[in-house]
User: Fold these one by one.
Assistant:
Number 1:
Amino acid sequence: MIIETLYAHFLECTSACTDTRKLEKDCLFFALKGDHYNGNKFASQALDSGAKYCVVDEAEVAIDERYIVVDNVLETLQQLATHHRKTLNVPILALTGSNGKTTTKELIKAVLSKTNVTTATQGNLNNHIGVPLTLLQINEHTDIGIVEMGANHPKEIALLCQIAQPDYGLITNFGKAHLEGFGSLEGVIKAKSELYDYLKAHHKVIFVNENDPIQVQQTSGYEQVHKFGLPTSSDTRLKLVKSQPCVSLTYNNRTVNSQLAGTYNFNNMAVAIAVGSYFKVNREAIINAIEKYTPTNNRSQILKQGNNTIIMDAYNANPTSMLAALENFKQLQQGKKHLFLGDMFELGQTAANEHQFIVDYLEQHDLGQVYLVGENFYNTTVTSKWIQKFQTVEALKFYLNTTRVEHSFLLIKGSRGMALERILDML
């Protein structure tokens, strides 16, 4: 089917959808295929549930004019999103990075929404499916679109840039994430910098953190750059004031007090302030947005449970973010401290070394009582009496049934697959 014809059908619909469990009435349903599912088998169900049309790539399921048969549903979704993007007179800001993408995106949205109608990636739907769906949510009422881009292999960011065609972009940081796909930190830098490559080639604007030497190096010689950070050369100057219990910084002769835990969130806040400043959001509105933003979904949350205070950062973890969390926790001046650390996933052949590196750090710095959870941490070598290992969360639960953790400051951090938020119910 010619994409213009499909686009005409899309304009008749309320939205685009890929999940029969989340259908909107009169939506355009895309019957995607995966390793363990085939959306074509649910096309008729989608129509019965209220979809207006279904895009399928198995002709035998198409029994009437409500089915739109294409060669490849995923590629068609991506092509439709790009076609839609070209019809919009809306600036698109793209962001990627190893850590802090979703928090940064939410902070930017909070700031820009003070004076603009914004449409942003929902949750962390930042891949080759989520980016097209985000673009298809943008309409003529949107002033600015914010598109989060994730990747775990080279060339993925380049593909997402071709789909979204951003006008502005930024990279939160470069860290040891998804090493199974990228191979090394150098591989991460090269892959994430595909966003820089696109923006430079198309003479678009890049936001650069001058406190990050890798960002400065990767954008050397670029024409359209908005710099932010501590140096006097920065277009938006910001300085960290304190990080305990939450991050505070100075901006434009004002102190900004956030509800975000962890020194690493200084850079996430700085990005949002720089973007807001560039787009002429006034100072008071920017400060209000940052100070009112409350973290959710197990990302840098400070929780109170009984007489314990908890830093809940269990949404995800990699060697860089884990070390940053430990460095931040080390600075806390509280009394009793407990650390619940779960395995870091997608590290490939580096997994054993990276987990042992974290253990070696913990042995060199007495941060408190440490509980390591997961196969990778369980297989590390531990000599310190303050570090205990548990092969599974269930094993930890059995231990906590006989041990009380009270009047303490806790850090809970691990990869999403570990679901360490379950620990809250065990304490």
Note: The chain has a mean pLDDT of 94.
Number 2:
Amino acid sequence: MCEVQAVKDLDAVKLVGHLLQRTYGQQMADIWNVGLNLALRISDLLSIKFSDINSDRLTLREGKTGKLATIKLNEKARVVIDRIRAENPDHVYLFQSYRNRWSLNKGPKPLSRRYVSRAISSIGEEVGLALGTHSMRKTRGYHLYKNTRDIARVMKMLRHGSEAVTLRYIGITQDDVDRDFVELEL
């Protein structure tokens, strides 16, 4: 498995969303847009049930860490979630698979991680970026850090335990640090 990147250019973030919508449909674009705004691991993002969402807040237990994540939904995430709920009032999952509705005696399931991964990777190849399912989470962390320069805030949002892990995760490299020293003269 190759290392995936944060999307550092905001125009590229929009382009990826547009290409996902054009190539794979609205549901995949919604995954990208909600994923960018919630900064969850893909397994947690795909496991979101409508019952986990109460007004403007999402509450779920993270699969990897077992930590309770309580996330206040921003306007963009709320609009997308409300539209999905209105279009699919009988769905259990926010990103529910349509395959199972024709299967007899099968309950609803979310989209598979593999399908989402292939779609995002494919668009990454098209735009020349190493993209994967973690790119949404990394992109959110990267842009929060660039806007605030507050690594503690980014760590808290991503629920990381170490600054070094967070910096490496969001793609802050030694070149970025060197550039900061050169560009900021006091």
Note: The chain has one domain: 10-183.
